From TrEMBL:
Protein name as annotated: Gypsy retrotransposon integrase-like protein 1
Top-rank taxon: Eukaryota
GO biological process, one term: DNA integration
Annotated GO MF terms: nucleic acid binding
Species this chain originates from: Salmo trutta
Name of a matching Pfam family: rve
Xref: SUPFAM superfamilies: Ribonuclease H-like
PROSITE patterns: INTEGRASE
Domain Integrase catalytic: 125-285
Length: 343
């Protein structure tokens, strides 16, 4: 804050520097601090968003909201910190979150297993959202109260957006109906390819006829091996792992918890693109309960858009976003191929 650097207030500066480690860390960023409605907020150099400077007594509560709630997904330290930093600021946040996650009994109970050896990774360019999708079945899992025991997962290869559809069976007919009613009707048809395994779900006559009718190129992998589709396999593992954390007490309602699990995944920054799937799809960050509870608001007044202005600005923003993500995907694919092919 400006008054702390004023010579007249030099004694205040001395007190700050002589205070706790947290206070000294905050004082070092005083140029970013301001008071709003008697609350201390932090404004970064890169954007105009206000972030509440959280006192120690409230930090555990905020971490619990960002980590434990269903749309928090019991994610790791990095993802939890990224969510918190959208609305909050305090020194050594990552250390506090790391301690919390290490002490989370649910996370300790469901540690991910070490991945098995994978087949050589094939690089593949993807040009725009939903130009290429990856589909797979997960199951059978515990039968829910509604009779569901399978999940059809559909992943956009570009944005990493995931749809996960519960089903009572995994037949070719069910696959076709779910894709038409819940995926193609929302996002349109894939412009390039639909990647799948060589299971009967995707190679049966019903699916073959569906691809012919829709004019979609169905690409069947050379080998029937789930790890041939590294991206969709990792996505499936994330969904199952998070679901297990929330249905440990009641396996009959996993399909009811699924939408909030998907919410958490879509709001998490993807390692390959460097962005969240929600931002890749919409051009903005997802509004989570944490934002409604703690967001101090923006410094700049909200812009009043006409429909035309909004579409123009959104298009420009998405073009920049896609260009950045494309570069990230190419670098990630090269790194993944080098890593996987060595194993």
């Amino acid at each position: 804050m400006a008054f702390l650097s004023d010579p007249v207030n030099h004694p205040v500066s001395e007190l700050a520097l002589a205070g706790s480690h947290d206070l000294r860390s905050l004082y070092a960023t005083k140029q970013h601090l301001t008071l709003v409605d008697d609350l201390l907020v932090y404004v970064s150099e890169t954007d105009t968003a206000r972030r509440w400077v959280v006192p120690k007594t409230q930090r555990g509560i905020m971490i619990a909201h960002a980590h434990d709630e269903p749309c928090g997904g019991h994610r790791g330290v990095k993802a939890t910190c990224e969510t918190l930093r959208q609305v909050a600021h305090w020194p050594h946040m990552e250390q506090d979150v790391a301690r919390y996650v290490r002490g989370c009994l649910v996370c300790c109970q469901f540690q991910p297993t070490k991945p098995l050896h994978r087949a050589p990774l094939q690089r593949k360019g993807v040009s725009y959202p939903w130009s290429s999708i990856q589909i797979d079945w997960v199951g059978p899992v515990a039968r829910s109260a509604r009779g569901n025991k399978y999940l059809l997962t559909v992943t956009c290869a570009f944005t990493k957006w995931v749809e996960c559809l519960p089903a009572t069976n995994d037949t070719a007919e069910t696959t076709a109906v779910l894709l038409l009613n819940h995926v193609f009707s929302r996002f349109g048809l894939p412009g390039e390819t639909v990647d799948s395994d060589r299971g009967t779900h995707f190679s049966a006559a019903v699916m073959t006829e569906l691809w012919k009718l829709l004019g979609v190129k169905a690409k069947l992998h050379i080998a029937y091996h789930p790890r041939s589709s590294g991206g969709v396999e990792r996505s499936n593992q994330s969904i199952v792992r998070i679901l297990r954390k929330y249905v440990a007490a009641n396996h009959k309602d996993w399909d009811l918890k699924l939408p909030l699990v998907l919410m958490a995944i879509r709001a998490t920054r993807n390692r390959s693109t460097g962005m969240t799937p929600f931002e890749m799809m919409t051009g903005r960050q997802m509004t989570l309960p944490l934002h409604l509870l703690y967001q101090p608001g923006d410094v700049a007044a909200a812009t009043a858009y006409t429909a035309h202005q909004y579409v123009t600005d959104l298009r420009n923003h998405l073009q920049t976003t896609f260009a950045y993500a494309q570069g990230q995907l190419e670098r990630s694919a090269e790194g993944d191929k080098t890593y996987y092919d060595k194993k």
